[in-house]
User: What shape does this take?
Amino acid sequence: MPNNYRLEKVSSLLKKEITLILQNDLENDLIRDHFVNISKIDLSGDLQHCKIYITSTAQEKVRTEIVENLNTAKSSIRHSLGKRIEMRRVPEIIFKDDVVLDKGLSVLKLLDELKNKNQNHNVEDKDAKS
Assistant: This one.
């Protein structure tokens, strides 16, 4: 089993090369029209399987379609990867939508709502005391 340093190096290389493939080689208008970014790569310890989490500026429905398009084109992407990097075996890849950003934004929205409620209650309390 490779050490963590090797996993990090290979993950970094995969992220860099797949980003270049998405930007330059992939002929997909949906992906080109929306800013698609690789947020995280989970690489298995044996370097055989790779989950690629993407974020995009698109709405959730469009992001789902982008992920479907990427998974449809994954054999082409994997083939391009094989030409670009020297590995005994290019890992099997699967694309997933990274929902962490959405969850973080919803938490921030809830915190803002709570803050506004507290401010409104404080104003009402001050008015009642006056």
